[in-house]
Amino acid sequence: MLLPNSGKKEMQLMTNACAVTEADVLTIKVQMSDVVKELNQLVDHWKARAERFHAQWEANEWYLGEARATVGRLESQLTELREAYARLEASLTLQLHEQARQRDEANWYLDELRVVHEALRQQTRELIEQLTQAKDDVEVLRRVAEARQDDLDTERDRRRAAEADLEAVRRHGERRGAVRRQRPDMVAEVRAPDGLLLFHGCLPNISVTGLAFGTDQLIEDVPDFVEVTLHVPGIARPIEGVGRLVWREAVEGANQWGCELLDLLPDNRRSLEDVLANGA
Length: 280
Description:
CATH architecture of the domain at 179-279: Beta Barrel
Number of strands: 10
Distance between the termini: 205 Å
Shape: rod-shaped
CATH superfamily of the domain at 179-279: predicted glycosyltransferase like domains
CATH topology of the domain at 179-279: Thrombin, subunit H
Radius of gyration: 72 Å
Low-confidence stretches: 1-8, 171-175
Mean pLDDT: 82
Order of helices and strands: EEEHEEEEEEEH
CATH class of the domain at 179-279: Mainly Beta
Largest sheet: 7 strands, antiparallel
């Protein structure tokens, strides 16, 4: 390129180019070898940078693949967690419903138990009142029984005194209205008015007015009157009558009893007289 200029001037433009002005003419000189060399250096530089970028890109692609795989695994795990959460939520919902049902059922039973408990408390109060009344009645009966026991003790004392008097009379001399005889073949039964058997067996002696018999055990609550039945061989019907116990004597662990015959029917009396007369 030519520019008007009055003198010659030279100006360095680049390392490989310069501009010369001579006679108003501008001349630019360029050293192509240096330009080519610089361009090659620039090419090598950009190639190296491109390779580095390509290596970084490949590394980034690998990391991106790893990240995508990790994201896939995390998404799979998240899906599994969501499914597990759904199942757990469904299970918890069922459990909550079941617990609510059980709670309602327990509340119903509790209400029923409260009603039953209240009824039992009412029955207990009534039973306590009845027990208190029964205790009062028992106390009254106990006092009555004590009074009756005192009367019974008094009567027993009187009977013992009477027995002692009868024993004394018997020891000093027994008055008998008839002679006593022994009849080993005759079997006698002596019973209390309530039917209790006091004696069954052969008599030591007997007369038309009384008899004697023995027992191994002491007779509690000795009755005043007894029923006497005599079984005699050869007589179809037994001889029956009513007697009164008039004395008792303990001899070597046994008890001897004296019984007065009070009430004999005429036929029975005649039968007994005949038996005793024939036995003589």
